[in-house]
Amino acid sequence: MFKAFLIKYAEIGVKGKNRYLFEDALVHQIRSALKKCEGSFEIRKTQGRIYVEAQGEFDYDETVEHLGHVFGISGICPMVYVEDEGFEKLCDTVVRYVADIYPDRSMTFKVNARRARKNYPKSSMEINADLGEALLNAYPEMHVDVHRPDAVINVEIREKIYIYSVEIPGPGGMPVGTGGKAMLLLSGGIDSPVAGYMIAKRGVKIDAVYFHAPPYTSERAKQKVVDLARIVSKYTGPIYLHVINFTDIQLYIHERCPHEELTIIMRRYMMRIAEHIGKETGCLGLITGESIGQVASQTMNSLIATNEVCSLPVYRPLIGFDKKEIVEMSDRIGTYETSIQPYEDCCTIFVAKHPVTKPNLKVIRRHEQNLDGKIDELVRTALETDELIIVE
Ligand code: ATP
Ligand code: MG
Fold first, then answer.
1. What are the φ and ψ backbone dihedral angles of 207, each rounded to 5 degrees?
2. Among 43, 140, 198, 282, which residue has the fewest nearby CB atoms (within 10 Å)?
3. What is the DSSP letter of 386?
4. Per the structure, how many domains does the chain have?
5. How far apart are CA 51 and CA 253, in angstroms?
6. 338 lines ligand 1 (CB under 6 A)
7. pLDDT < 70 stretches in the chain
8. 126 lies in some domain
9. Nearest CA-CA partner of 27 in 79, 77, 70, 78
C-alpha cells in the first residue's frame, strides 16, 4: 500500500546556509542507506521536506529499518499517493486508507490538508471540512477533535496527492558528515561501540583503531572487533578500521614498568598512537568508551594520566552513564550480543592484581622513561604495520 515516505527532520539549529548543508548530507546518507535495500528509490528535496519514493517493487520493512538507521531523521511517515483524478476519487482513497490503517476506528481524528499547488480547486480549509465529512459518513464511530486528535490524516496536494498519518520515530541527531571526523578507540567490549554510535549521532564521521596483541589476543578477538565495527557502520557509513599490532609495545612495558601501572601506561601509548593516526587522517578528536569509576583506569585521577598525552580533544560520551544504561544502549543499537562474546581484548591480558587507582603523574612519567631507547622504534613499527580494514 505505501509507496513513499516523508522524511521529517528537526530543523532547530540548522538555519540559513547550514540548512542546505544539513539537508544535502541527509539526502546523501539516505541514498547510501537505501542502496542496501531491494528496489530503487527516488529521493527528492522540496520546500524543506525530503521525500523518498519507491520506483516499483520494494520491501517495506527493510526500507523502514534502513531509514531508521540514518542520523538526522526524526520521523518516517509512510505515505500513500494517488494521481489527482478529482475530489470524489480522493474521498474514496482517504476512506479506504483509514480502513486499511485503523482496523479499530473508535477514535478521534482531524484532516490536515496542505496545498503545495495553489491551482487546486478547493482551499485547504474546504478540503479539511469535506474530507472530514466523507470520513464521518463512512465511519460513524469516528469523531472529530481538532485539538488533541488520536490521528491526524495529512493530505498533501502536489503534482500527485499524498496521504499519511503515521510517524515512525527516527534516530534523531545530525547527518553523518556534517560534524567532521573523529578516531574511535574500538575494543571488543560493550562500551566503545556505544561511544562511537553516540558521537556519530551528532553528525561526526568515524574512523577506528583497534590494538591487537597476538598471540595473547586471538584472531577471533580481532574478528569480533571487525564485526562490531560492521554493526556500528550501519549507522555511520563505512568505517576505516586501523588494526595496530600492540604486542611488542605491551611486552616491553610489562618488562620495564611496575605492574600496577601497566594498564595506565599501556593506555597512554594507545592514546598516543590513536592520536598520531587520527591527525594524519584528518580527525578532529578521539573517542573512548570510558566512564568515571568503571575500572581502576577510569578514575578521574587515571583519566588525567591518559588524557595528558593527547592534544586533540578526547570525547567520552559515556562518562556519566552507569553500566546498566550502557548495556541498554548497546542492546538497542544491536552491538550487545557481539560484545559479550568471550574473546579477550588486549587490555584484559596483562592486568595487575592491584592496579593503581590514583596514579601519580610524576611517577608515571618517570617510569615511562624506563622505556626510552626502544619505545620510539616499537611505536614506529606498530604504525608502519598498521593494517587498514574498510568495514561497511
Ligand atoms: P570497552 O567496553 O569499550 O572495552 P572497557 O570498559 O573494557 O571498555 P577499558 O578496557 O578500560 O574499558 O578501556 C577503556 C577504553 O579504551 C575503551 O572503551 C576503548 O575506547 C579503549 N580501548 C581499550 N582497549 C582497547 C583496544 N584493545 N583497542 C582499542 N581501544 C581500546
Ligand atoms: Mg574493554
1. -105, 165
2. 140
3. P
4. 2
5. 56
6. no
7. 11-15, 345-349
8. yes
9. 70
